[in-house]
């Protein structure tokens, strides 16, 4: 963590104090999109005007960075999910837990309504659907790679169905969050419990 | 399949030709609600007027049967999900497959957008949330009972986490449908594959 920052940091991906004004405006714009969706506004109803007003920037600032609303929504969803974790690459169990937890960060939970609020529109609107897949597929692919590595090393069964296993790892977490089932299946150690239950059947 | 039907069929639950006019109107009203939601209308936007117009009935016909919109929506979701299957009660595996398949009927799939379209509003609106829980909890309880029975008979591990296992059985199906992942995890034998994968880790 280096608290110092100069203008040469402009291209860096990680947040740092003192980063240039543009990055601050970008973050305010993306947070404004997430706040509006989280309050229950539909993607259709979220206008560039409303985002600009909420973020305290001019519309031109938004249009300079994002060619259209789909691109802005895609970046907002990416920002909500946060960066993919650095995987230790040692045990399949630890890597899978890290991947599930990466979708359950406090930041992602703060915007827990966003995925649910986007879903109806993702289904209706092909451009939004493509946007959503473009955001989630690289994340899904990382989990596939961990599962394939486990098969290759012999940690996992040779005949494991990778796609089905991925659904078994990610599905319960999504449903528990979206249907607000925390009273039935608590958040504590959620990722560990799911991974251990899946691995009990998936181990070689 | 008996094509004959008399007026003594009035109290029966299954559809039959020639059943009384009230049942026909009820069905038209519930289908109208599902169609409007399935087209992407929000629950807030679905008005009694719009339902009456779509179903070809007067508003009074609706108000005679349902005290308010939440009760009408609850019945529509119940109708979409269809009756719970008769469980053979022999093997845990067969019963779990039947329960997952009961949520994946052609009728339920025809209205595949409805759950997704309701979700944002279920989250925002407490009355709708309670309505949704009242519809899904009895169904979830049936699955819990099958799992508890399996623990009691020794088919399932004594230390099985029933709530977590339920989430592992129902979560993948919901996510595959809602995120339209049929290209990655096909519908064919979906229930069997999930149940077998879960049981591999859950069996005693």
Automatic annotation (TrEMBL), chains A, B:
Listed PROSITE patterns: HTH_TETR_2 (PS50977)
MF annotations from Gene Ontology: DNA-binding transcription factor activity; transcription cis-regulatory region binding
This protein's UniProt keywords: DNA-binding, Transcription, Transcription regulation
Domain HTH tetR-type: 23-84
UniProt-annotated stretches for the region Disordered: 1-23
SUPFAM superfamilies to which the protein is assigned, alphabetical: Homeodomain-like (SSF46689), Tetracyclin repressor-like, C-terminal domain (SSF48498)
Residue stretches of biased makeup (Polar residues): 1-10
Residue ranges: DNA binding: 47-66
Domain of life: Bacteria
UniProt xrefs under PANTHER family: HTH-TYPE TRANSCRIPTIONAL REGULATOR RUTR, TETR-FAMILY TRANSCRIPTIONAL REGULATOR
The protein's name: TetR family transcriptional regulator
């Amino acid at each position: 963590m280096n608290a110092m920052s100069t203008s040469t940091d402009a291209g860096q991906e990680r947040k740092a104090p003192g980063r240039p004004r543009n990055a601050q405006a970008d973050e305010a714009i993306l947070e404004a999109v997430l706040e509006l969706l989280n309050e229950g506004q539909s993607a259709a109803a979220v206008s560039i005007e409303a985002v600009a007003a909420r973020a305290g920037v001019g519309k031109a600032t938004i249009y300079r960075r994002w060619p259209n609303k789909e691109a802005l929504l895609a970046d907002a969803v990416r920002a909500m999910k946060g960066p993919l974790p650095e995987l230790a690459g040692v045990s399949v169990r630890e890597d899978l837990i890290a991947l599930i937890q990466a979708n359950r960060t406090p930041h992602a939970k703060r915007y827990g309504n966003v995925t649910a609020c986007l879903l109806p529109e993702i289904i209706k609107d092909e451009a939004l659907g493509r946007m959503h897949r473009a955001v989630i597929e690289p994340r899904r692919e990382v989990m596939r790679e961990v599962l394939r590595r486990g098969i290759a090393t012999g940690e996992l069964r040779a005949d494991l169905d990778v796609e089905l296993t991925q659904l078994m790892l990610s599905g319960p977490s999504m449903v528990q969050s979206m249907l607000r089932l925390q009273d039935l299946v608590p958040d504590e150690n959620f990722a560990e419990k799911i991974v251990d239950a899946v691995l009990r059947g998936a181990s070689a």
